[in-house]
Amino acid sequence: MKVGIDMGVATDGKPVLMDLEELLATRLLVQGNSGSGKSHLLRRLLEQSARHVQQCVVDPEGDFVTLADKYGHVVVDVAEHSESSLQRVAARVRQHRVSTVLNLEGVDVEAQMRLAAAYLGGLFDAERDYWYPMLVVVDEAQLFAPAAAGEVSDEARKASLGAMTNLMCRGRKRGLAGIIATQRLAKLAKNVAAEASNFLMGRTFLDIDMARAADLLGMERRQAEMFRDLARGHFVALGPAVSRRPLPVTIGTVETAGRGGSPKLLPLPDAAPEDARDLILTPSEEELAAPPPPAKRSPPPPPQDMTHLLRLAGQRQAEAAAAQAALPEEPEGDPAELEARLDEVLRQVLSDPGAAFRTDAVLYQDFLVRCRIHRLRGEALDMPAFRRRLSVLRAGVDEAREESPEWQQAVEAAKSLPEDMQGVFLLLARAVLAKAPCPSDAEVARACGSRSPGRARRLLSYMEQRGVIVLRAQLGGLRSIALPHLGKETAAGDPNAAAPEEPGDGDLFAVA
C-alpha cells in the first residue's frame, strides 16, 4: 500500500507528498536553526501519518505531548520510570503497536541521554515477532548523538550515542525508521547523520552548516547562501521519499499545538512607579508565613597548627615502626622454598570455584590476602609477574615436564607476548609438549578467563595474524595448532568439544 504524506506545497502551488513506505526504508534528517520551524515540520509529519503507522517521539522539551489528545498517543513520563522499567515499557510498546511520546521534560541533559538510550534500546531489542513498521522521531538529536564530548559523563554519552547509531544504522531491518531533527549539523555525530537518505533543510546562518547542507543536497557552494533567506516554515527537500532534485517546500498547517510556541509581544502593565516598587519590595502573605527554623550549624573548627599536625604524624609513624619491629620477624628461608610457598598460595586461589572466570585484578587481591594469612610477602610479585606466574599454573604442567628445556623455552617465549595471550600460549604449549589433542574453544576461553567460545576464536585468529600460532584445518572438522616459537604442532582435536569437567578438588586447570 502506497501512502503519501502531505507535507505542504511547492513554489508552483502543487502539493509535496512524502512516500511513507520509502521513508520507512531510507530515514529522514531535518536541520534548521532555532525558530526555523523544525517542530512544526515534525508535527505536520506526525499528524499526517498517525493513521497509517505506529509512532514514537523522543521529546526533550515536552512539546509533543499534545498529540495524545487528538491522536491517542500515550505519554510516557520519565519521572515515573527507571531505565530498566523504560526498557520493559518499550518492549510492550512494540508488542501492542501503541504510539507513544517519551516526555523527557524536567530532567537534566545527562539523565535525558540515559533514559532515551534505555527506551530506544528497548525498541531496538524487541523480539523478531514484533518488528512492525514504526516511525521514531527524535527532536534535538544533537543532545543524544553529540559530535564531541561535552559536560556529561562518558558513560551516558556512549550509551546515548550507541542507541542513536543503532536506530539509524541497524534499525531498518527491525522496522524502525529514524527521523532526527537538529539545530546544527556540526553538533550531530557524523555516523548518525550519514545514514539518512532524505533531507529537509531549513534556515541556517553559520557558514559550516550552510556548506554541509549544500553538500548533502548536492548543491553548489555558491548556492548555500540561500539557506540564510529561508522564511520560517520553509525548507528545501531532497531524497527518494520526496524528490530526486532539491525542492523548496512550504510546510502546511497543523491541527495540534505545542505547549511552548514562539514568544509574542504583549503591552506592559500600567502601574505607577511607586506601586511597582511596592510590588517587588513588599513581601506577600505567603512569604510572611513563618519559615521553618534553619538547621543549626556547628561553628567552624579553629584553624589547625600545621607544626603540631606534622609532629603528631611523625610520632604515629615512629609508633607504627616500633610496633612492626616488635612483631616476630618473618623467617627469610630458602628462596626456592619461598617460591614454592607462593605457588602453593596461587594454587589455593585457583582452586576457589569460579576463579577461572574472575579478572586478574580480583585474583591478585585474593592472592595478597592469602599471603598475609600465611605471613608471606605477596607484594614481591607485582601485577605483571603475578599474571605470568598465573599463566604458568593455569597451563597445568606437571613438575617433571616443568623442568624440561622445552617448557622453559615456552615460558621465555610467552614473556615476549602481550599479557592477554600468555595464558593461551602456555596452554597450547602444554598440549604440544604432551602430544595431546588441540584444546577446544571452550578450553581456550577458560584459559583467558571467559565462558565465551566466540572470544576464544577471536583471540586465536588475532594470535595467528600476529604470527604467534598457525591454525590448520584437519579432516572431519578437526584442527591442529602449530607454535612457530617451538617448531612443534598439537595433535588434531575437535574445536567444538566441551570443556572438561572440573576436578573434584576444585583445581580448574589440573591435568587429568
From TrEMBL:
A GO term for molecular function: ATP binding
Q: Which InterPro entries match?
A: ATPase_Atu1862_pred, HerA-like, HerA_central, P-loop_NTPase
Q: Where is this region: Disordered?
A: 284-335, 491-512
Q: Which residue stretches does the UniProt record annotate as biased composition, category Low complexity?
A: 309-328
UniProt feature, compositional bias: Pro residues: 290-304
Residue span, Helicase HerA central domain: 12-94
Ordered alphabetically, the record's keywords are: ATP-binding, Nucleotide-binding
Q: SUPFAM superfamilies under this entry?
A: P-loop containing nucleoside triphosphate hydrolases (SSF52540)
Which PANTHER family is this protein grouped with?
A: HELICASE MJ1565-RELATED (PTHR42957)
Protein name as catalogued = ATP-binding protein
Provenance organism: Aerophototrophica crusticola
Q: What is the lineage of its organism?
A: Bacteria, Pseudomonadati, Pseudomonadota, Alphaproteobacteria, Rhodospirillales
